[in-house]
Design a protein that fits this description.
This protein is mainly α and 281 residues long. The chain is built from 11 helices and no strands. Helix 4 (102-128) packs across helix 8. It binds zinc ion (2 copies).
Length: 281
Amino acid sequence: MEALSCELSWDCVGQVARFQFFMNFVRYYPVAGLLFLVVWVWGKRRYIGSRIQQKWPDSGKIWHEIRWSFVTLLVFSSIAIASITMGKAGWNQVYLDFSEFGMGYAVFSLVAVTIWHETWFYWMHRLVHKKPWFKLVHLTHHRSTNPSPFAAYAFNGYEAFLEAIYLPLFTFIVPIHPAVILVHIGYAMIMNIWWHSGYEVFPAGWTRGRITQWINTSTHHNMHHSHFNGNFSLYFNFWDRICGTNFPNYDEYFEGVVARRRASKLARPAAGMEAMQRPAA
Ligand SMILES: [Zn+2]
Ligand SMILES: [Zn+2]
């Protein structure tokens, strides 16, 4: 916190840098790692029915994701340091006194940054799927056709820059408090890890519900990794729906994943009973 309040000087930038590098790494690897351990390692057999793709990626692909996440964290940290330094120089609209705009405005700015992130991500993502950008910018992320939680930040340097720059751009125009930025970054990271988890938890009918159809599922982004040119959006299924870029079989594919999960849940107690009834050898 001291790093946030210090006056602009080289010493202050050094404090910001140490804090940002530490926070970025400490936020990401333990969260993605915990989900990986709980679901992919310890729960491998237990949760197999909830897997979106039944096959497993080889360990080389997972190491690829872990390595490139390191590059992304370096880029994210550098952008944060530059952005905070600019704030101290008075170049952006970040304000430190929460009471200046109050709680109502804080909520508004949180909604606004989320909508902006969604819009930026969708159109940037569609662009980097086109030649020649795909190879140069986005291929590193798409090496994962069956992603693990570590794929969330598996970007090369160019893409990491594009993934993060929407936030400093926002702060140039819209006043926002650091606490709101922190909340936004927190859920953006957690959701991103979840969309790359390889598992589905939402119930049947989600993609056809009047309200729920507008909220993206883990299956939505997993399909993007296995099928490539469709399902480009982030939190909400808004731009994909109005631009017609959802995969035509998204609903059926989602229902197939949920049906498999249900079948595996029904089969589990039956298998247990069978084992109990089997005579001891
Ligand atoms: Zn993509
Ligand atoms: Zn992805």
